[in-house]
Design goal:
mainly beta, single chain
């Protein structure tokens, strides 16, 4: 099986959506990554790329979602995933 791994660093476009799946917390995140460059014509170009991320709580119930995402991540928060 082949796969690609990426790192996303940007800002949350909205508050995370936290839900429960069979007793496990799941967070859905929408991350905006801004890109700015000058094209061949000398014009400044700005683009925003959106990424949808999903984070699952580790077993035992006290992990990334409960300890970091739920209490601290809000719209506009910078994230690195």
């Amino acid at each position: 099986m082949n796969f690609a791994q990426i790192t996303v660093s940007g800002n949350l476009g909205s508050d995370p959506e936290i839900r429960d799946v069979n007793g496990t917390k799941v967070a859905n995140l929408s991350v905006a990554v801004n890109e700015s460059y000058t094209n061949k014509s000398g014009e400044n170009v700005e683009k925003t790329h959106w990424y949808r991320l999903e984070a699952w709580e580790s077993s035992g119930g006290k992990g990334l979602v409960s300890n970091v995402i739920e209490p601290y991540a809000k719209q506009g928060t910078t994230v690195f995933a």
